[in-house]
Amino acid sequence: MMLAIILFAYPILAALSALMLKSRRKLDFLVLLHALLHLGLGLHGFIKRGSLGAMDDMGLFIFLISSTLYMAVAFYRLGLGQDHNVKAYRVHTIFLMLFIAAMDAACMAKDLGLIWIFVEATTITSAMLISYEHTKSSLEAAWKYLFICSVGIALAFVGILLLILAQPENATLLIHKISYPAISPFWLKISFVFILVGFGTKIGLAPLHFWLPDAHSEAPAPISALLSGALLNTALLPLLRVERLMQRAGLGNTSQQLYLMMGFISVFIATVFILKTKNYKRLLAYSSIENMGLIMLAFGLGGFGIYAGYLHILGHSLVKAALFLTAGNILSIYHDKHHANIKGLFYRNRATAWLWLLALMMILGFPPSPLFTSKFFIITGLIGKGYYLPVIALILLLASIAWSMIRISLSMCSSEEGEKIRLPLWTYLSPALLLLIATVVGIWMPVFE
Amino acid sequence: MIHILIILLLPLLVPGLISRVKAIMVGRIGQSVFQPYFHFAKLLRKEEVISSSASLITAVAPALALAATFCAALFVPMGNSASLFSFKGDFILMLYLLALAKAFMVFAALDSGSSFEGMGASREISFTAFLEPAFLLIMAALVFSTGFTSLSTLLSSYSISGLEVWSLVLGTITVFALYLMLLVESARVPFDDPNTHLELTMIHEVMVLDLSGFSLALIHYTAALKMLIYASLITQVLIPANASLHLLWYLIGILGIAILTGLVESLMARFRMNRNLELVLVPVTLSVLALAALIARSMGAW
Amino acid sequence: MIEILVLVFGITLLFASITNMLSSIIRILVLQGLILFGITILKSTHLNWLGFGFIALETLIFKAIVIPWFISDTIKHNAIHREVEAYVSNFFSLALMSLIFLGSFALAVFSGQQSGRLFPLEFGIAFATIIKGLFIIIANKKLITHLMGYLIMENGIFLLSLSVGTDLPHIISLGISLDILLSVLIGVLFIKRIKSTFDDADSPGQLREE
Q: Which of A72, A292, A127 is nearest to A203 (CA)?
């Protein structure tokens, strides 16, 4: 309990003190301290289960992923250039810490109402983070994000209210206290659909994904990494919790069918747009949609698909964060977001090019990436359940995505023109570390329950 | 007996009262309250001028319209709680008799061959097309609360009492929707200005532009009778079920509505033409809300 | 008494369909906040000073005073043109409103038969409000109108929470109201920035797929 208080007291105090700081270095150190604290508390909670605010295992899992990403991002920021004014940077730092605090609270909370409040808080704080550059497109992206997510989350709240209605007596929103024998299946189903639509908007499931490409591509690189890697997982958490409820209440089939359907549509839409897009950050954003779709497919299969789902969450977060950080490097070299204009990456900055290619290989599922294992499990799971035609379609879609991404990256890296540029060390180290962790996970493949 | 007297004598008093109120509001003395009667008598004596492209329809339509409206008036309780004729579900017949009268007027307007009347006819139809569903929905709400009977029984058994909150709510919505219908059907401000003679802005007036003499007299009387029908409906909703001195309350109600209409006409300006089309939907939405709320309430737990 | 308030709440939705001015939608928001205050007070069975304070804060102060003040302030400071610029005519909006009422009351009656704890009248009007809020967001050009549609939707959700039969714990209600207040604040901030960079506060359409 004490630890939970420390976890939340620090961002608030740090945010207050950041109001008085004037130098970027000091603000960066605040963030670094926060990240260290975060990771330390997470590991402590892992070793002594239940000591961090009585978080259950699912929440702890997501919490640890967020801490790893936050460490990497905090180190990456040390390597960023000094070309923005301090006032905007200060606001940015404050909201970053508040954003992380809101995500932690959403991981920790067990009451659906509280989870809702904190997820909405993450929307608000991250919207401020996205529009950091105050350009036209980033403002528009931030507005779309704020609006679509707020409306979606409001619908999720309708679902939560209907969940109260579903319980005939002693209605409660504490997830582990809901008595599932007595629940009325009719209301539970309707409530589940609303919650799926609502939190699915936040996750980026098609057809509610319209904010995602804009928001994730217009945000600065470290923020995109956090959004894609940490926020999507945090929004997935309540959905998984409610799905467990559905399973216990006997409606597991319905929820699984819905998951499969939405997962498949997401992969399909992601493929279509990846083939079309001209902006490499949007490419990464659509890949997030595709991976979230795959995660939904995994959880929709049940059985060992659940293991595959968790593995995919871990792998995707690590590799996608590395990709976004590397994309930030590319942007600082070329100052251009269109991949057709980027040539000769290998020549200009070898480290970034290697990082980019390696990360891309890992996200596509080449071994030793953990995504290889999870995708393998997903496909075998689908075949095992008899969905032959969807499997063939899925393989075709994944192959198209792979083709498109490889083509784009190779064209970015080839040819030799331009001058060589060196970037600060931290900007290489952070993505490299993330990829390393991902490789270790892929090889070692921890067993979680 | 009283019924026939009221139908014959009272209608023309209402436009007269409205004009008098309007005049007083702007500071004039204005015409006498009985002026429409004198106007009616004058028109009866005048010769008719008929357009060369008019046919038989122009000759008979005003009379047919009057006949239909008169028959509709027979079903409405006026003066006391029973009407002259009534049977179960007669309000549907009344509604369609009024629609028939309007149809005849439109035919007469189209028949004259001038484009002005055609324009007025189309506007009139588009405005009043949505009032029929509104009326039926209001009747449905009343039927839901009191049972499917004739119009007079419906109105007399429906009473607004201050103690029972729902009757108050339903009564308010019904009266408001009916009053809006009165304003639209009798072409009053804010939906149409009966005094305007600018061709671009006329709706009802333009339909009767081509009639004169006896036909025009009949048209004036028909319009006044239609207004009286709606005013009677409103008054009967408001009068409690077993009131003594029913006739007195009725007359007070009718005259009160006339004065209110005069005030509304003086204090409001006419709405823009396209806004009118939108606002005409308001009675429908209101009555949908009332009906749905009634049904929901009857099934709900408080 | 509660039923009358709920019905008046439904009638305010009608006003939202008819009107052409931004200021009247703000008045509708104020009225809805006051009505929600009344309904909450009348519905709560046990009331101590703390509970009363919370409820008053959420409904009266936030919904009826603070948020409308922020929005009208934004409109004045950014010199936003005072007309509601809708993509569809008021006629269509009113017709759709009737359909929405029919649909949500049908749903409410059907749900009332399924579960005994529902209040069908509040449920129906709450649902109608939510759908109407969504419609306002979709069918209007101005960003500030989108924000107001979102607030109407949130009012509907508040009414829905009153109609399911149990009181939400005060902490959660307060948290929700704070969230909404913060989103309005940030939304207003964004509108100011969008207006100064784009020179108009209409729905931006710059980011296309390319």
A: A292
Q: How far apart are CA A436 and CA A434, in angstroms?
A: 5
CA distance C1 to chain B (A): 7
ipTM of the complex as predicted: 0.88
Residue C191 scores a pLDDT above 60: yes
Tell me which residue in A137, A186, A214 faces C114 most closely, judged by beta carbons. A186
Residue in B closest to C125 by C-alpha: B293
Confidence of residue C50 (pLDDT cuts 50, 70, 90): confident
* Whether pLDDT at C210 is above 50: no
Q: What residues of chain C, 132 to 171, have a C-beta less than 8 Å from chain B?
A: none
CB-based contact B72:B171 (threshold 8 Å): no
Find chain B residues with C-beta within 8 A of C105's C-beta. 292-293, 295-296
Tokens of A334: 């070329």
Q: A102-115: buried (b, 16+ CB within 10 Å) or exposed (e) per residue?
A: bbbbbbbbbbbbbb
pLDDT in tens, B41-73: 998 888 888 877 778 888 888 899 999 999 988
Asked if C102 lies within 8 A of B295 by C-beta distance, the reply is: no
Q: Say which residue the tokens 């005073």 belong to.
A: C65
Domain count across chain A: 1
Residue B64 has a pLDDT of 92
A382 lies in which domain range?
275-280+313-449
Which chain C residues are closer than 8 Å to A184 by Cβ?
Answer: 114-115
Are A and B neighbours with ≥3 CB pairs closer than 8 A?
Answer: no
pLDDT in tens, B248-280: 888 888 899 999 998 988 888 877 777 777 778
Nearest to B68 by CA among B91, B92, B102: B102
The DSSP annotation for A76-112 comes to: HHHTS---S-HHHHHHHHHHHHHHHHHHHHHHH--BH
Residues of B in contact with C108 (CB under 8 A): 296
Give the residue from chain C lying closest to B277, CA to CA: C91
Chain C partners of A116 at a C-beta cutoff of 8 Å?
Answer: 176
How does DSSP assign A212-267, residue by residue? HHHHHHHS-HHHHHHIIIIIHHHHHHHHHHHHHHHHHTT-HHHHHHHHHHHHHHHH
Report CA torsion sign: A303, A305, A307, A310: negative
Could you list the beta-strand ranges (E) of B240-286.
none
Q: What is the pLDDT of residue B163?
A: 60
Please give, rounded to a whole number of angstroms, the shortest distance from the CA of A173 to a CA of chain C.
9
Taking the C-alpha atoms of residue C92 and residue B278, their distance in angstroms, rounded to an integer, is: 8
User: What is residue A160's predicted lDDT score, i.e. its pLDDT?
Assistant: 87
Find the residue in B nearest to C121 (Cα): B296
* Burial class of residue B128 in the structure, from the number of CB atoms within 10 Å of its CB (0-12 exposed, 13-18 middle, 19+ buried): buried
What amino acid is encoded at A176 in this protein? H
**C203 pLDDT higher than 70:** no
From chain C, pick out residues whose CB is under 8 angstroms from the CB of B278.
18, 89-91, 94
| C57 contact B CB<8A | no
* Amino acid at position A178, single letter: I
Inspect the interface and report whether the beta carbons of C120 and B296 lie closer than 8 Å. Answer: yes
Closest residue, chain A, to C197 (C-alpha)? A136
Residue A277 has φ and ψ, to the nearest 5°, of -75, 150
User: CA-CA distance, A331 to A337, in Å (whole number)?
Assistant: 7
Polymer length in residues for chain A: 449
Q: In the predicted model, is pLDDT for residue C207 greater than 60? A: no
B266 burial via Cβ count (<10 Å: 0-12, 13-18, 19+): middle
Instruction: Tell me the CA distances in angstroms from A292 to A11, A298, B128, one per residue in order.
Output: 29, 10, 54
Give chains near C: 3+ CB pairs under 8 A: A, B
Please state, in angstroms and rounded to a whole number, the distance separating the CA atoms of residues A57 and A449: 9
